[in-house]
Amino acid sequence: MVNGRRTGAARRWPRLLPLLLLVLPTGGCTPPGESRAALRHLDDGRIELLAVVCEGHDAARLAVYENRSEGGGAGWVVETPLGSPPVERTQVLRVTLFRTPDGWQEQEGALDDLSPGTPYGLLFSDSAGQGSQLRFTLDRLTGLGDRVLTGPWRHERVVEESEFLDGARKSCDGA
């Protein structure tokens, strides 16, 4: 602290804390270059998460949060109950953002809609700690048609839904 003002790491830490709290509990991540999560903008304006859950795992956590440089952004977090059974074969999970799926529990609900121009982050993880993360804005999702926005983190790209699903399913072979 210099002249009553925080400096260096003391200034950055409060901005990083919300992101760290969401990212650290996930453990591992998917193989480099492959993501098991994608977002698409539906014709009716809703945003849908497509997530591939690998055989023997279970979906565990979905978090969407405002990715504000000053920190402290609102979030929406849902989780499956502990001890949920694993899937018997690899499957695609489709979740409309801000609508808690049946059998899931909402852990945080301060965010209930996306605003144009606001940066967001998404984290999806499974019961094995395999996580996929995306950075996005509503503007970037609008007009994708049948295409989806997928990762990996900081390398998001727009692809055909079938291309995303093929790559995500193949990443399960190495899980």
Describe this structure in words.
The protein has one domain (8-172). It contains three helices and ten strands, in the order H-E-E-E-E-E-E-E-E-H-E-E-H. It has helices spanning 8-23, 138-141, 161-172, and strands at residues 37-41, 47-53, 59-66, 75-79, 91-96, 105-109, 120-126, 131-136, 147-150, 157-160. The strands form two sheets. Strands 5-2-1-9-10 form a five-stranded antiparallel beta sheet, covered by helices on one side. It has a five-stranded antiparallel beta sheet with strand order 6-4-3-7-8. The protein starts with 7 loop residues before the first helix and ends with a helix. Mean pLDDT is 81; it is low at 5-32.
Average pLDDT over all residues: 81
- The counted number of beta strands is 10
Which word captures the global form? globular
Strand order in space, largest sheet: 5-2-1-9-10
